[in-house]
Amino acid sequence: MMKYAVVTGGSKGLGAKIVRNLLENNVYVISVSRGENEEIAQLKQVNNYQFFRCNLASATEISNVFEEITKLVFSPETEGIYLVNNAGVIDPIETAGNLNDEAVLRNVQINLTAPIQISNLFLQKAKETNIPLMIANVTSGAGERPVHGWSLYCSTKAGINMFTKTVSLELENHQSPIKIFAYSPGIMDTEMQQKIRSSSEAAFAEIEKFQGYKEKGMLRSPQVVANALVTLMMEKEIENGKVYHVNELL
How many helices (H) and strands (E) does the chain have? Predict the structure, then answer.
C-alpha cells in the first residue's frame, strides 16, 4: 500500500522543503510547478518521486494535468493521499486604483481558483473511491488582516480560508475519511520576501517593517516551517476546517 502526496509550487521555497520532508517520510511525492527543482530531481528516490509541469495560471492546463495525476494516485493500492495546495503569488503589490487587470486575474487564478479547482477534483475522486484524503491549503496571516498594497493577496488568502471552512462544514455528518485544513506559515526567508522588500513605499506602506524582519534575523527558515506542516499532517489529529498557525506548532 502506498501513501501519495501532491504538492503544488514544489520547486522552491516552502514547497521544495515540504517535498523533501515527505520523501524522507517514505511518501510517494508528486511535485507540480512550472519548473523542476534540479536538486530534488537528483536526490529523488528511484520509485517515489514524480514531477508534473503545470502553469497554475491556466485553468485548462490544471484540468488536463491533474486529471492525469488523479488517475495515478487514486488506485486500489493507495492507502491515503495528501494534497498540499502550496503555490501562491504576492504580485501585484500595488494600491487599489493602480492595479493591472492581467496581474489581478493571474493572482486570483493562482492563489484562489487553482486550489479550489484542484481540491474539487480530489474531493470528487475521494468520494468515488473512499480513499482517505487530507487537503492542506497554505494560507497567510494576510488572509486575516488588511495589509496596505496587498488587496489581492489578502483577499485570495481570506477566500482560501473560507473555502476550507465551508468544505469542512459540508463534510460534517458524512463519516468521511476526508480532512481539510489551512496552514499559515508566518514570515519565512524566501523569494517572496525578497519581492516584498524590493517593492516601493508608495505601493506597500509596511516595507520598512519587512526589511527589518530580514535585518534582525526574524525570518524563519522554510525547512522549520515545512517540518511543522508535515508533522501536523502525519502525526497529529486534524481539526477539520481549522486555520493552523505555525507559531502554535513549534
Answer: 10, 7
- Sheet of 133-138: strand order equals 49-53, 28-33, 2-8, 78-85, 133-138, 178-184, 243-245
Cα–Cα distance, 72 to 84 (Å, whole number) = 16
Give burial (CB, 10 Å; 0-12/13-18/19+) of 58: middle
Name 156's bridge partners: none
143, 225 contact by CB (below 8 A): no
d(CA 200, CA 210): 12
pLDDT at position 72: 96
Angle at the Cα of 194 from the Cα atoms of 34 and 135, rounded to 5 degrees: 50
pLDDT at 46 over 60: no
Cβ(164)–Cβ(180) below 8 Å: yes
Our measurement of the distance from residue 99's CA atom to the centroid of its chain's CA atoms, rounded to an integer in Å, reads 24
Half-sphere exposure of 129 (CA within 13 A, CB side): 22
Confidence of residue 41 (pLDDT cuts 50, 70, 90): confident
Whether 85 contacts 142, CB under 8 Å: no
**71 CB contacts (<8 Å, ≥6 apart)?**
none
C-alpha cell at 77: 493500492
Amino acid at 74: F
Query: Is the pLDDT score of 47 beyond 80?
Result: no
Residue-level pLDDT at 6:
98
Q: What is the pLDDT of residues 90-114, one digit of tens each?
A: 999 999 999 999 999 999 999 999 9
**Amino acid at residue number 187:** I
Q: Per-residue pLDDT tens for 112-170?
A: 999 999 999 999 999 999 999 999 999 999 999 999 999 999 999 999 999 999 999 99
Q: Which positions are annotated as active-site residues? A: 153
